[in-house]
Write a structure and sequence with these properties.
By secondary structure, this protein is mainly α. Helix content is 81%, strand content 0%. Helix 6 packs across helix 14 (311-339), helix 12 runs parallel beside helix 14 (311-339) and helix 13 packs antiparallel against helix 17. The protein starts with a helix and ends in a 9-residue tail after the last helix.
């Protein structure tokens, strides 16, 4: 399985799914909150609902895949549902149906998140242990290159130069992004080769029991549960901040969508660099040590970004934020592959994906409550929300201390 073809297809899928993610992240968020007047709290609650749905399904599907099915099968189904639900969401958006758009965005986002519990574990099939940090970095780099491509793809639409439905430019960016995501995901879904597993027939009750047993065994492995808790905490802050970043720029700085796009392009370029560089460093000095350094960096970055009053300083800080975001994602993913027990990688990554997305269970609530409860403070409430994310970072560091280092002396 360690072939250049499979690595290419795996990275290409990361490229594809990032296109739809960045467009919805930038334009759907603003369309819902700024144009349609939906409260920040209700926008953020969609991530919480998707996390709850993931909570009840990811562990079970991960266990089933480890025992009975191929990972690529789960990826195919979840990709199709992602395209279907987000496509419907896009159609409702161009017709200014905010409530229905939010409903199908929630379902589409859940399918999108669930797909990673099938996609991410494939890193163990396409790379040797000593190269997983590097391959993970390639995936992250492809992801951010895809986001750059996505922003450039819809820039003429968001500016109003191209219009398909005569609707809001922000709403019109969504459907093209969904279609391009589907097209670029097809090579992975069709041509990726994974060894077949022998399917063992058993009842649903038996499968549930096996899933519970597998989960107990997984969490009996030293370091797995503690790392997942740490990841839950610090990723909570990072994910929540990124999900609300376009709204933050609008409310605090009042910049145009074109300026937002250029800022995000800068962030994505540094993210791609951070992904590839951090993977190499983590393979050399250890994933835990690298991750600790990155987390301490976030303690500095959040206050600087949140309370910067000079726009130039803000832009410079966001460039560092991009590097840190790409690096953190790369190192966390490859660290999980190092500590996951053999034979239960799908289940381990099901929980990893679950924790990664379930961390959006608390963060969005905290952010939403702050900006909705401090309305009299105006734009300053968004700065307070950004500072509040530091609390989750500190808790993540304190937990990560208890995880054994992966670097052998």
């Amino acid at each position: 399985m360690d072939t250049k073809k499979n690595v290419f297809l795996w990275a290409l899928y990361d490229f594809a799914n990032s296109i739809v993610a960045i467009v919805f992240f930038l334009y759907f968020a603003q369309w819902v909150v700024i144009e349609m007047g939906v409260a920040d709290f209700y926008f953020n609650i969609t991530f919480t609902i998707a996390a709850v749905l993931l909570l009840f399904t990811a562990p079970f599907t991960g266990s089933l895949l480890d025992r009975y099915f191929r990972r690529i099968s789960g990826l195919r189904y979840t990709t199709i549902f992602t395209v279907l639900f987000l496509g419907i969401c896009s159609i409702f958006a161009v017709y200014n149906q905010a409530i229905w758009a939010l409903v199908f965005f929630t379902l589409g986002w859940y399918s999108y998140l669930l797909s990673f519990t099938f996609y991410t574990p494939l890193i163990n099939d396409i790379s040797k242990p000593g190269k997983r940090g590097f391959v993970s970095g390639l995936g992250i780099t492809a992801n951010y290159l895809g986001q750059i491509a996505g922003l450039l793809l819809v820039l003429p639409i968001s500016s109003g130069a191209i219009s398909f439905f005569g609707s809001s430019p922000r709403a019109e960016t969504l459907l093209p992004a969904v279609l391009v995501f589907f097209i670029f995901s097809l090579p992975m879904l069709i041509f990726f080769k994974e060894p077949k597993k022998q399917v063992v027939e058993s009842s649903l009750a038996t499968k549930l029991k096996e899933s519970i047993v597998d989960t107990k065994i997984l969490f009996s492995i030293a370091g797995v549960a503690i790392f997942l808790l740490s990841y839950f905490l610090f990723n909570d802050a990072v994910t929540t901040a990124m999900n609300n970043f376009s709204i933050f720029m609008e409310q605090v700085w009042g910049v145009s969508d074109a300026i937002k796009t250029y800022i995000l392009l800068g962030i994505l370029i540094t993210s791609a660099i951070g992904g590839i560089v951090s993977g190499y460093i983590a393979d050399k000095i250890g994933h835990k040590k690298t991750l600790m350094f990155l987390l301490f960096g976030w303690i500095i970055l959040f206050p600087v970004i949140g309370f910067a009053t000079n726009f130039t300083l803000f832009v410079v800080a966001t460039s560092f934020m991009g590097f840190w975001f790409g690096a953190g994602w790369t190192v966390s993913r490859s660290f999980m592959s190092c500590i996951a027990p053999k034979g239960r990688h799908n289940l381990a990554f099901a929980f990893f994906g679950l924790v990664e997305r379930a961390s959006a269970l608390v963060g969005p609530l905290a952010w939403g409550l702050i900006v909705s409860g401090l309305v009299p403070l105006g734009a300053f409430r968004y700065r307070i929300a950004a500072l509040a994310m530091v609390v989750f970072i500190v808790l993540g560091i304190l937990t990560l201390i208890f995880v054994k280092s992966d670097k052998k002396k």
